[in-house]
Every structure is written in structure tokens, then in C-alpha cells.
Amino acid sequence: MSRSGQRAIILIGGEGTRLRPLTLDTPKPLLPVANRPFLSYQFEVLRTHGIRDVVLCTAYKPAAFKGAIGDGRRYGVRIQYVQERTPLGTGGAIKNAETLVRGTTVIFNGDILNDLDLTAFLRFHRGRRADATIALVPVEDPTQYGLVETAPDGRVRRFLEKPSPAEVTCDTINAGTYAFERDVFRRIPAGTKYSVERGLFPSMLGNGSRLYGFVRRGYWMDIGTVEKYLQANSDVLEGRTPFEPAGRRKGEVWREESARLEASCRVEGWAALGRAADVGPKAVLRGSVAIGPRCRIEGGAVIQDSVLLEGARVGARARVVRSVLGRGTTVGRDAVVEGAALGKGAAVPAFSRLGKLP
């Protein structure tokens, strides 16, 4: 499907506080998932549905995005940047991009990994002559979320904030993707902090605007916590999404240029190895493991259901289990790290125990 001139907005201004310490030096949308920057997956969804013009709304560490993404050419998109001087919330960020869009605009939250069928989403939006449409996703426990109740034709009836079991009338929540017509941008106040979720949408519901909800199916994951971030890596590696890790696949392993895996290593699951990553003799990669560029795993080490960011080093016979090692971290020989997230440059001395004790 070709959408010449169609633009999308991606909101990437948040500080990612729930993912600290990982986000202290790297904004959340740039964290790698299976050795690909998270944003690359959103670009892939847009490209698949013919949208190549993207506005990135930045606030936190804007220079990092320009350095990593540039003009977007390497990802098959064309990027324009808008920067908030002070955090303005979702509404304020969208308002900042108003002059760069026209017609129907797709808006993504920058921390949702999903395979939304944008073609069907936009067909629904236009078919209902909606002013705005919210993508919705079903959840198992509706009492933990703010729900969006819709009529049979999809029109939004009401919002329910963390209802009790007796109050539950639906199981759908805001999935973090929107379609806006041009007039909706004009309803957002300029230069002030404003939330589309708590301000704009309830206001539109109250004044009779054509606000609809599109219930999406397929994969959906908010990567906002360390646990969810690990799950997203696992889901991509294990084929629960339509996406693939970086590198070339051979069996259960994806390798980028110059990645080395000793013949005596055991891969008991799925693994992705970044550029110049080096896994030593008799090491074990178990479950779902993403090893970033220039990482070094010494002989006999065990890495299980974990993510190692660029330049991390794991000593001989050490164990890293369900953890994230930040850039340039070091885990000494015979040490154990379990259920932890280590920030950039952290060091765990030899024979130390961090997290759950064996």
C-alpha cells in the first residue's frame, strides 16, 4: 500500500525512569532489542504499510537520537526532529509537530513493540469518518489498567480507570497508537504540559467528537520495565513476533559481522551476537540471550535469558541469569549475577554474588 506524503509522529521524549540505570546514558527508544535499536522496529511497521516520513518528538537526550538515527536513511525512512525545551507531555509533544504534518496522521508512543496492521487501522479510522481513533489491546486482568469501553461500531463510550471486578465491562486498554485528523491538533493547547490520554480524549468524549477505538490483535508489549524489556528480547529471538534480530541466522544463532562463537560453546535456546562479539570456549548460552557488539564472554561462563549491551565482559565460569548488563560492564570470574540490571561501566568483582544467591 502506498501512502505518498503520509506522515507519522513518534513520541520519544520520556526519561525511561522505570528502566534505570539502563536509560541514564541511553534513551529507552534506542536501547537494543535483539541487537537492533528499539525504534527500528517501529520504522519497520511504518515502512510495511507505506509510511516513510516520520517526525521524532524528542526531549530527553535529543543528541543521542540524531547520532544513532540520523536522517533515517539506513532504516528506510525520512526523519524530521522536533525538540521540547521542557517536558510537555504527550499532548504538548504532538502539538509541537503540528506544522510538520497534514491530513490523517499516525502517532506512536515510543516504547511499544507491536505489529499493528496500520492499513486496517487507517481503513477503520477513515471508514468511521473519525476525528481520532485509538488503537486498543485486550488484557488478561482489566482491573490493573485504565479501560476504554466502546460501542459495537467502535465509538468510544467511556474511560474506566482501574475498575473493580464488579465495574469491569470490557478488557481493552489504550495500546499507544493513534490516528488524528488535522482538526484534532488544533484542540491541543500550545506551550503547556498536556496529556492526550487525560485531557484531550476525555474532552473529545464530552463534546461529542467522533472518537473511536480499534481493537487490534497480534503482538503488543510495553518495554518500559526491565522485566518487559527482557521479555521483548526473548519474544523477538524466539519468534513470537514478526520481527527478526540483527545479523544473519544460522540455526538458533544470529550473528553480525566478525562475531565469534567457539566451536565448544553450547547454545541451549536462541542467541544473537553483535559485531565483534566473542564467546569463549565451553561457554553456555541458555534460553534467550542477546550479546551486543564487542562483548566478551570468557570460557565456561553461563549466560541465561539475559541481555548484554555493547562492550560488556563476563569472566571465566561466571553466571549471568535473567539480567541486563549495561554498556562496558564487567562481571568477574566465578561471579553470579541474577535478576539484576547493571548500569554503564558497573563492575562485579570475582566470586561475588549479586541478586538471588545460588
Give the tags.
seven-stranded mixed sheet; 29 strands; 358 residues; UDP N-Acetylglucosamine Acyltransferase, domain 1; single chain; ten-stranded mixed sheet; Spore Coat Polysaccharide Biosynthesis Protein SpsA, Chain A; alpha/beta; 2 domains; 33% strand
What's the arrangement of secondary structure elements?
Layout: E1 7-11, E2 32-33, E3 36-37, H1 38-48, E4 53-58, H2 62-69, E5 78-83, H3 89-96, E6 105-109, E7 112-114, H4 118-127, E8 132-138, E9 146-150, E10 156-161, E11 172-180, H5 182-186, H6 196-206, E12 211-215, E13 220-222, H7 226-237, E14 248-250, E15 253-255, E16 260-261, E17 266-273, E18 278-279, E19 284-291, E20 296-297, E21 302-308, E22 313-314, E23 319-321, E24 324-325, E25 330-331, E26 336-338, E27 341-342, E28 347-348, E29 353-355
Parallel strand pairs: 1-4, 1-6, 4-5, 8-12, 15-17, 16-18, 17-19, 18-20, 19-21, 20-22, 21-23, 21-24, 22-25, 23-26, 24-27, 25-28, 26-29
Antiparallel strand pairs: 2-3, 6-11, 7-13, 8-11, 9-10, 14-15
CATH class of the largest domain: Alpha Beta
CATH architecture of the largest domain: Alpha-Beta Complex
Helix % is 10-25%
Q: Helical segment tally? A: 7
Uncertain regions spanning at least 5 consecutive residues:
none
Class by alpha and beta content: alpha/beta
CATH superfamily of the largest domain: Spore Coat Polysaccharide Biosynthesis Protein SpsA, Chain A
- Strand tally is 29
Mean pLDDT: 90
Q: Please give the largest β-sheet.
A: 10 strands, mixed
CA-based gyration radius: 22 Å
* Beta-strand percent range: 25-35%
